[in-house]
């Protein structure tokens, strides 16, 4: 059985570093991208089981990248966790096709529970 892949896309290096630290104990390969203009290529290359994406980024926004995931046959089963500092991002994220939305700052236990559930249900 292959190791699960988690792709993180957030333009904030501090958030990416924090997420990487939180994911150290998870049995999965963690890949990060801070340049949203590269995210479509990275999604195709990596084909992650779980995609963690910030909603508001320059160039390619989180909802655009979520719509992209949902439009691609190879990626359509990817679990998408959208994170954002804006509370009104909930509707935007779910409308775009995210499985779960968490507002920053989020509870670490809640975040890890969502990840564990997503990885257990991933094909």
Automatic annotation (TrEMBL):
The keyword Ribonucleoprotein does not apply. The modification 4-aspartylphosphate is found at residue 54. It comes from the Bacteria. The keyword Phosphoprotein applies. This is Two-component system cell cycle response regulator DivK. Residues 5-119 form the Response regulatory domain. Coiled coil: none annotated. Pfam families: Response_reg (PF00072). GO terms for biological process: phosphorelay signal transduction system. Gene3D superfamilies: 3.40.50.2300. It comes from Sphingobacterium paludis. Keywords: Phosphoprotein.
């Amino acid at each position: 059985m292959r190791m699960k892949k988690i792709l993180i896309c957030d333009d904030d290096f501090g958030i990416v570093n924090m997420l990487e630290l939180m994911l150290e104990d998870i049995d999965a390969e963690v890949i990060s991208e801070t340049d949203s203009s590269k995210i479509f290529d990275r999604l195709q290359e990596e084909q992650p089981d779980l995609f963690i994406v910030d909603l508001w980024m320059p160039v390619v926004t989180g909802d655009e990248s979520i719509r992209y995931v949902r439009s691609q046959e190879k990626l359509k089963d990817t679990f998408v966790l959208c994170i954002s500092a804006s509370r009104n991002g909930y509707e935007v994220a779910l409308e775009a096709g995210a499985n779960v939305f968490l507002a920053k700052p989020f509870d670490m236990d809640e975040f890890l529970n969502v990840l564990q559930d997503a990885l257990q249900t991933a094909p």
